[in-house]
């Protein structure tokens, strides 16, 4: 079902309000659970500020709070290895404004957009999707922060976990092969700019690149919590030989001994619990869920198994190629539009990850499952422009600020990725040692 532009704006606002009002306590506003990000209050102001400064100014709407427009204009993504290095952004204030003032600013921006048919005007200019998708991506990154937030600042409940309990483990009786061979062939990355008229996209999606991919084997399922815990118990975090040099330096500097989605069990040394945005789960409960790790951690696990991570082109080929004729489909399962809970765990269907392999209707033509949803898929390809890339003048720093070799491409989507973002050419990216993303991985080999 295609939603109207009004419905899409209201949906993104409802999701944001669900976090700021329903999942966080009032005192959480100034908390900063991830040091490499701003406090929650900044993002509550940033979403309306972006809408006003990037989109509504194109409609010549006069600002009613220039100070907030500027203060909340752009967030931060500092270098993990040297946080003093960061792209251009406004200086943070010595003291944040009262939350009630920020909420008042947000509400006024929304009401201004609702007036005088402005949503349709932005839609006709191609700027509605930019604003909505910007908010949807921030909603997901806000949930990374909620995951790391001390439970005293959030509304802590097992209700959604208990509701999803039947989905926490693999389907009984399903027997998928561990690996499938993907034959050699071409991966057709990117999009022709003319297709933006039919489907909006970010600037890094455009430009076209054909990559000849050699035959390789791919795991049919992502690595699970239970499998990754075996790596931890085998001393994987202390074996330098398994880690790439820069990843090992980061692990040592951060004294990292486990993924950020696991926390040490308080009453049992050497044991862990699995962290959700709602509560903790036992490792037994979580054993079939995908493990969320950084690229550096995933590389170390892959080395332990004698495997590696896929490139962006390999991931694309196992997801979209059709055996035999070299043609590609729009989605791993074919050309049918994505349906949350049928083709995968996305679109906030469950609000938590579920067991791997739960959605066989979403498997690719080669039999690879869970390529979309339940966690972004890490690739070992640096985030770079495709040939013919052009900066989007409406948001010039969106991609180009991060073509520096430290960010890597992720594909697919997580449980917290709205369905609008599920498309073949969408590219997410994070620094290789940023450990907070809902990012899973699978293994490949030649």
Automatic annotation (TrEMBL):
Residues 177-444 form the Sulfatase-modifying factor enzyme-like domain. InterPro entries: CTDL_fold, EgtD_Methyltrsf_superfamily, SUMF_dom, SUMF_sf. It comes from the Eukaryota. This is Sulfatase-modifying factor enzyme-like domain-containing protein. It comes from Rhodosorus marinus.
């Amino acid at each position: 079902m295609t939603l109207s532009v009004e419905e899409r704006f209201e949906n993104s606002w409802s999701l944001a309000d669900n976090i700021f009002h329903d999942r966080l306590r009032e005192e959480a506003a100034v908390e900063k659970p991830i040091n490499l990000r701003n406090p929650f209050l900044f993002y509550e102001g940033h979403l309306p500020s972006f809408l006003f400064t990037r989109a509504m100014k194109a409609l010549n709407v006069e600002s009613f709070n220039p100070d907030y427009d500027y203060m909340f204009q752009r967030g931060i993504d500092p270098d993990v290895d040297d946080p003093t290095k960061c792209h251009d952004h406004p200086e943070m204030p010595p003291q944040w404004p009262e939350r009630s003032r920020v909420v008042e600013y947000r509400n006024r921006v929304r009401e201004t957009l609702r007036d005088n048919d402005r949503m349709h005007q932005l839609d006709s200019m191609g700027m509605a999707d930019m604003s909505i998708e910007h908010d949807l991506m921030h909603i997901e990154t806000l949930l990374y922060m909620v995951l790391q937030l001390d439970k005293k600042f959030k509304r802590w409940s097992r209700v959604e976990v208990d509701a999803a309990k039947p989905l926490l483990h693999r389907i009984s009786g399903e027997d998928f092969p561990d690996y499938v061979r993907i034959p050699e062939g071409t991966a057709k990355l990117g999009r022709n700019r003319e297709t933006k008229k039919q489907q909006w996209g970010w600037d890094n999606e455009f430009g076209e690149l054909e990559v000849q991919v050699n035959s390789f084997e791919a795991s049919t399922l992502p690595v699970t919590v239970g499998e990754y815990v075996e790596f931890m118990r085998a001393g994987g975090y202390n074996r330098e030989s398994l880690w790439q040099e820069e990843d090992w330096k980061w692990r040592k500097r951060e004294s990292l001994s486990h993924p950020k989605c696991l926390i040490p069990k308080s009453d049992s040394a050497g044991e862990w619990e699995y962290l959700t945005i709602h509560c903790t789960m036992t490792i037994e409960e979580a054993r079939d869920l995908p493990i969320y790790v950084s690229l550096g951690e995933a590389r170390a696990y892959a080395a332990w198994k004698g495997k590696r991570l896929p490139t962006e082109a390999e991931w694309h080929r196992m997801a979209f190629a059709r055996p035999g004729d070299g043609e590609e489909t729009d989605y791993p399962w074919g050309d049918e539009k994505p349906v949350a809970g049928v083709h995968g765990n996305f679109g906030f269907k469950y609000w938590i990850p579920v067991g791997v392999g739960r959605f066989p209707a979403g498997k690719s033509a080669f039999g690879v499952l869970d390529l979309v949803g339940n966690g972004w898929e890490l690739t070992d390809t640096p985030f770079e422009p495709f040939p013919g890339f052009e900066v989007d003048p409406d948001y010039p720093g969106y991609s180009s600020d991060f073509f520096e070799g430290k960010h890597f491409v992720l594909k697919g989507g997580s449980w917290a990725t709205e369905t609008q973002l599920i498309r073949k050419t969408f590219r997410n990216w994070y620094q290789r040692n940023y450990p907070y993303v809902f990012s899973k991985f699978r293994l490949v080999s030649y």
